[in-house]
Amino acid sequence: MSNWKKLFKSKASGDEHPPSSRASADYGSDDQRAGNENNNRSSGSYGQNYSREASKTPVDGQATFSESRKTLASSDLSKISSGVNKLNLGDENKEPVLITKNLENTDPVIENDDEPSTSAGSSYSVSLSQQNSSNRMKPGLLTVKVYSSKDLEIPVPLRINKQILSKLASLGQHVNEEELNEKIDALNESLDEAANTNLSYYLPSTLRINSSAEPNKNVIAQYNLVYAIIEVENSSERISSVGNTIAHTKFNSVTTFDVTSPNNAILTIQIYIRIPGSLLESNKQEDHLIGSIMCKLSDLNRNSFDNLRPVRLLNHQWINLKNPYTDDDLIGSLNVTLDFKPLTKESKPLSIDDFDLLKVIGKGSFGKVMQVRKKDTGKIYALKSIRKAHIVNKMEVTHTLAEKFVLSRVNSPFIVPLKFAFQSSEKLYLVLSFINGGELFYHLQKARRFPLIRAKFYICELLSAIETLHSMNIVYRDLKPENILLDYQGHIALCDFGLCKINMKLDQKTNTFCGTPEYLAPELLLNKGYTRVVDFWTLGVLLYEMLTSLPPFYDEDVSIMYKKILEDPLIFPSDMDSVTKDLISKLLNRDPAQRLGYHGVSEIKSHQFFKDIDWVKLTNKGYIPPYKPQVKNSLDISNISSEFTDERPMDSVVDDFLSESVQKQFGGWTYVGSFGGSAN
After folding, report:
1. Are residues 94 and 35 in the same domain?
2. Of these residues, 478, 487, 496, 636, which one is catalytic?
3. Which residue of 33, 158, 168, 440 has the lowest C-beta tally within 10 Å?
4. Is there a catalytic annotation at residue 287?
5. Helices 452-471 and 534-548 meet at what angle, rounded to 10?
């Protein structure tokens, strides 16, 4: 994994104008929708149709969200140094209820961290294979047990302050304070800063501090300096340290994931450190990525096994952590156990009763989107409910089925994956990964425009997502910031496939007039039919907007905007570099046959703009995003408008009668995972 910022230095800017809200439109179709001339469609996260008007400005408090977070800064630690044995962190550091299990009493790590268990073999590295394992795995449950780390290193230089280090040692949980103080006393404060990374052996991973605001009240709270993010199929869980030093952090946690495409599934574990500001030159608390593990589940399944029985993929194995800043160096190891339990034919079909309804996160005429918790695994998802009668009356059945078809077959790290699909007699349900870093639309509003390094990062991941769709003969047709989510790390996740067109071969044309006005390609406006290269036009518009704050031909009057799209010259800010201008100009060529990408995505990848990109590394999420959203855990809804989250979550009762012939249209709706390893 590499730091993305190393690749670029220049920035692009333009006039500071806030972006406007956009509504997608779908005016007719190639088949049964041909008669609908004005079927306006507002598109939002997870493909839910609701008005974007409420999202034009951030909700109160979001603009200063990062500033409002409590930090372990120098002012706090000065109190500690002066003898105040408490640190008021307020409610900000109270963790919501997450369903993970403590292994302390049931499956503990060994007590001597300097002599780790080798019963399952010595440390080894895992990497992503370019070929699928010959052993096919069925969908099922993956249980991840994380015990402890070994020899973790702090990735940035620290300031040596013996007084602060000693005080932190006194607050440490499950550490030998006397032994730590002996090590601290022996420290040479004149050490070169580069050598200070070994302070991981002197710092506790977990602090016990008084969290009460009242001077005479003693409320002990746990403050974690080390935490891990475990991710499988875009579902993530955060686990926190429970004690020992940073170098030998104890986690003792177990969590379970639903795995619907196990032959493509990748397990990622990333270890972060929250460094107190008093130990940094900036005097500000910073979260730094220490190291990561990434492995394909099917590669761990080295021995044949009965697909109906549980299997242990790793047994108390020490796995090497890769240094995210150099790719090659190791930066410690992590002791983990992985168990996989495949689903069987006897497994009970899913229903709405298998989920706890937590929050409403979107609403529209067809139904609503809710944040839910799956009762058996405790994992957080986005559940989209759709009224059958409504989509039948609005002639949206084909589009709804197409969306589910695409989501169930696509395999891209940059597309929101479908976990499950089920139905009742009145409703259809889609269960998707809950991506809670916020819409790109919101982040672009907040920043006005992005630096080149950030815009380029998003365009690269979007291009990878589009390449996956085109390889499956799917045209997206509605690329815009509202349909792009950021995950907890800052990677993109494309959502809303309600306007996509399936079975579109390379040179095949379609005539449906759909999309968002600011992004419509000229050939679509001229009603001459269009091919999959319309997605590259919208990619060019999006890149221009991210760098300048507005689409290139924007006008509040839609008819004038259409005229500009067809006729106006492309104007760039004076400080935009020539390579970026050239890429945008070629993507926004009004002649589809001359547009960059006409001969395939590889044509775009070969442009000078992408010369430094390792596309395999990018697909493996190997680059560190230039921006990380403020997301505390999988329950965090702070990046979602309170207009929705304040509403009571409930699965409303409807009394719609649908004939047997209509119900048959939804006969293949149910989805619990795929056996195959290919997205095609």
Report:
1. no
2. 478
3. 33
4. no
5. 170
